[in-house]
Each structure stands twice: as C-alpha cells, then as structure tokens.
Amino acid sequence: MRQGWRWFGPDAPVALDEVRQTGATNIVSSLHQVPIGRAWTEAEVRERQAMIETTPSARSPLTWSVVESIPIPDAVKRKGGQATAEIEAWIASLEAVAACGIPIVCYNFMPVVDWTRTDLDHEIDTGATAMRFDHEKFAAFDLFILQRDGADAAYSQEDKARARIAFESMSESDIADITRNITSALPGSTTEPLTIPEFRDRLAAYAGIDAARLRQHLIEFLEAVAPVAEARGVKLTLHPDDPPRSLFGLPRIASTAEDYAALFNAVPSLANGMCYCTGSLGVRADNDLPAIARRFASRIHFAHLRATKREGDGRSFHESAHLEGDVDMVAVLKELVAEDRNRKSDETIVFRSDHGHRMLDDLNKTTTPGYPAIGRLRGLAELRGILHALGAPPT
User: Fold this and answer.
1) Do residues 315 and 116 touch, judged by C-beta distance below 8 A?
2) Where do the coiled-coil regions begin and end (predicted)?
3) What is the mean pLDDT of the chain?
C-alpha cells in the first residue's frame, strides 16, 4: 500500500517538505483554483505536477498519484446525461489528468452539500479539537436558520423541541459559524459556497429528484466517462456520502454496500471504482466495514483511513483518533492488505490518514479544518504501525 497525503497546493499551511517529513510518498491533490465546471488544461495539470514531483537536491521524491477531486457540476446531478456540456468539460479534465500519467481520480455525487459538519473545533477530553456533526445543531439550522420548506415534517416532536433549545442557546456568532460551516463549503469541497437564499433555491431545484433518479443520473454520467477513463488507464473512485444519509431531504446514493453494488452492476467497467472511506461509511452502524472491503476489494484503488465515533442515538458523531471510535482499523487493513498483495507495485492501493485532530502546536496555528499536520501525522504513524505488524510495510 502506498502512503498518501492530501495537499491543498502552494498556499496550504503544510508545505511539501513537511509532507516528506511525515513519511508519505504519494500526494493527493487537485486544482482547487479552477472554477467548478471549467475544463482543466493539460498545462495546468503539468504545472501542479511539476511543483509536486520536481525534487530539490537531497530530498525524497513525491508522486502525484491521486486527483481529489475533479468536481462534478450540480447540473450533472440534476440532469444526468442531458448535462452534455458539463460532462464534456469533465471528460476534458480527465483527459488532461490522464495525459500527465496520474492514475486515480476521486469524486463524489452528493447534491448541494459535500461533506458536512456543524463544528470544526469541538474540544475533546484530551484538549485537542475534532470536527463534529451535532444532530441537534443541524436540526436547529435546518428548522430555524435555513427555515427549509418541508423541514418541519422531517423531524419528530422530540427532535424539534431539542432543536429549538439548541437554537435558542446560540449567539449571533454561533449562528454565523454554523451557517458558514454548512453552506460555505469545507476544504476540498466539490460544491459551491452559497448564501442562505441561494441554498434554498438550490434545494428547490432538486424537487422531484429521488434516490432512484439521482442514481440513474450517476449511472448516465459513468456510462459517458468510464469508457474514457478505462481507455486511458485511469481509475475512477467514488467517495461515500458524508454523513451517509439524507440531509435536507436530499437523496444520497453512496452510503451502503448495496448502493455501490448497484453502480458496479450498472456500469461494470473496470475503471468504475471506489474510494473506501472508513470514517464516512463507519457513521452507519449497519455498515460492516471489513465485509465491504472484502466484497469490493478489486474496486478499491484509494482509501481514506480514519475513524468516527457515533454518539447518543447514532445521528451525532465526531472524528475520533484513527485507532479508536467505531472503526476496527486492524480488521479493515487485513482485508486491504490481502487485496494489495495480489497487485502490481504500481497498482497498489493509495491510502491516506484523514481528518486528524488539531493538537499540540497546531492549536496555536492557522490550519486547514480537518487537515492539520500533527493530527494526520499521528494517524499515519498508527496506520503504518498496523501495516508493519501485518507484514506489509507501506511504500
């Protein structure tokens, strides 16, 4: 397995030399500066690739192995194969990536909102901070800040009472924070920042789109792009929904093993793969993570290895340390190692630690939410230790 590290580009708080110090060898990055829907050019990809792969004297080399992500425009999610211009632009970006020899592209198909958290710096018992999804705060936002049409019917009387208490305890600053966290796109998001009125309008645009229709739109997208990826030797890896359930009444279609099975059955191309994210899938108690890894082993080309801890009734959760929480990371890695041993060296699974705690000196620095250096370094070291114990040291 190959050790990856998500790098947000030349302005990121973590520099490439600092990535080298973590022991990671494979970079996960994207052209975040390019507007969603605009085709990437080969020149732009090569410029970023040269930045990553041009090795200074006496430094260890880095390889850009995973693009995370080429954002899929909202029109594709709403219109499927009818969004021809947007799909053609996406294919052009894919071809630019392929021309540069980058073998893996990660993407997601979450409508309106990407990965969602209510708190970015929730203090945990060690004094470090973690990202958190608080169901009561989320319901308070949905019901009393966004005031979404149909929200009232989506919650029980008990939920609404608790949400009101949560809302009434919020200061103006708290309201601004949760609004920004939910509507303004978190780091690496593949959705656009929205104002509250824009957010309501975007939700309204999904009226009548249920899970079956959204899945069909994804299948139509894959039918267009997977042959191109397969012909050029690129693996497409679909990231799970985060959290893996409906938000704001929107359908989500990459939350369970059966969701993925439906997509692989519909589009059997070998380029149609999975980003195996233990943290996202692990939020659902009914997702058997080792079984999912075993079932779809040949489709897994990229892995986000992190742990989440479900709270209370299972709807709230926070990012735990990588070897804690509700993910049996040893069992997961046994499955991935078994698959990895059957692969050529240049086709092994790229993994990265993810969503580390903000801790130690990072508490005194400006960090990218979810991506501080020290917390991710701790996670990578722990994952590396398991791999050594399994007799499969990472490269």
Assistant:
1) no
2) none
3) 96
Which stretch of DSSP H or E encloses residue 274? strand 272-277
**Domains of the chain and CATH, by start:** 2-116+201-389 (3.20.20.150), 129-187 (no CATH)
Residues designated as active site: 239, 277, 304, 354-355, 371
Residues ≥6 apart with Cβ < 8 Å to 125:
none
Give the integer Cα–Cα distance in Å for 340 and 350: 10
CB 206 within 8 A of CB 78: yes
Is residue 65 within 8 Å of residue 104, measured between CB atoms? yes
Residues 6+ apart with CB under 8 A from 105: 66, 67, 68, 69, 70, 94, 97, 229, 234, 235, 236, 237
Give 122's strand partners.
130
- In the block, tokens 């705060």 appear at 137
pLDDT one-digit tens code per residue, 85-102:
999 999 999 999 999 999
Neighbouring CB atoms inside 10 A of 50's CB total 11
Distance separating alpha carbons of residues 78 and 371, to the nearest angstrom:
31
How far is 381 from 3, CA to CA, in rounded Å? 10
- Angle among Cα 325, 329, 332 to the nearest 5 degrees reads 135
pLDDT, tens digit (0-9, with 9 covering 90-100), for 162-188: 999 999 999 999 999 999 999 886 776
To the nearest 10 degrees (0 to 180), the angle between helices 84-99 and 42-53 is 40
Q: The tokens of 279 are what?
A: 């943290």
Residue tagged 């890894």 (tokens): 293
**pLDDT tens per residue across span 70-87:** 999 999 999 999 999 999
